[in-house]
Amino acid sequence: MSRKRQPDQKLVEKWISAGHGQGAGGQYIPFFKVRDVPSLGRSHRVISLLNHRIQEFLSDTEYAPNPLAEFSTNTLDIREQFPLLPWEETLEIADNLKIRHPKYPGTKTPIVMTTDLVLTLKAPAAPFAMDIQTRLDWSKSRMSNIYLPICVKPDSHLVLPDDFDASDIAQLNKPYKRIFEKILIERTYWERRNLALAIISPSKIPWIAAWNLDRHRHSIYEQSLCHLDQHLPVYSELFIREWRTDRSLNDLFRIASRKLQLSIDASAHLFGRALWLKKIPIDLNESIRPQFPIKLYDHESGGMNADSGNWSNLQKH
């Protein structure tokens, strides 16, 4: 059901009681979907590689962290359009901060505020050098997963540092002031849960890596291509062996196709699967285009490899 009409309190309560914005994994339902709100950019509806549900993103900037997080070995779940429930809590926070709580346009109904993305990350493993008892104590204190809430905003909106406070907001002009008032409510909500809100803008996103991964997502989520996995070990070994700095990706597809007696399309899909399954050490920070050579990852080069995308680092920004 579209939510572009003006909701009253009963309707919002109906959305909440229906489970919107609740659950986890494949059972999670975003609080709103692409069709429910006017998008500020190109929207995305994609199949999650983690739990196979449809994900809903309102813009490129909101979507770009998704393939990066999916690629990270630390990510367990991604929940977009995550509501800050219970509904009354953000009203209380706004009142405490003496900030006007946002309302649905054209109504007096307080909006259910949302965080753009909430990642569920694996708890860090205990350092191997610890003795057994220390490892047990470490593990006991870190048994739960880590949650990383992410707020996505254009660079032009971020006129204050991430550690801004209410006194900083007071100095801003009206449009920016309102933006940061809403962020302050959101940040306070997560601080009450001992979580830091990561604020991401386009300048903080490794776009080349994000789009490299996005271009090859279809090769990994298409169930009809799973039969190709029997060729992956040989394909990956052959690909690395035949790789040259002056050999285009198309050339490598043709070589693999000929030697493994596969179609060019199958060779290209195997490349996508090998990329996502981390079978080939590709530097994702270099654009992957079939007509050009690609760069393989070298541990000394500082490229983006299989263990890149540690989103817990964003909590420091």
Keywords, please?
single chain, 317 residues, alpha+beta, Trna Endonuclease, Chain: A, domain 1, 2 domains, four-stranded mixed beta sheet, two-stranded antiparallel sheet, 12 helices, 6 strands, 36% helix, elongated, disordered C terminus
Q: Your description of this structure?
A:
With about 325 residues, this protein is α+β, with helices and mostly antiparallel strands. The protein has two domains: about 10-205, Trna Endonuclease, Chain: A, domain 1, CATH 3.40.1350.10; about 225-305. About 35% of the residues lie in helices and about 10% in strands. The protein is built from twelve helices and six strands. It has helices at about 10-15, 60-65, 65-70, 85-95, 130-140, 165-170, 175-190, 205-215, 215-220, 230-240, 250-260, 265-275, and strands at about 45, 55, 75-85, 115-120, 145-150, 200. Strands 3-4-5-6 form a four-stranded mixed β-sheet. A two-stranded antiparallel ribbon has the order 1-2. β1 and β2 form a beta hairpin. α4 (about 85-95) crosses α7 and α11 crosses α12 (about 265-275). It is elongated. The protein starts with 8 loop residues before the first helix and ends in a 41-residue tail after the last helix.
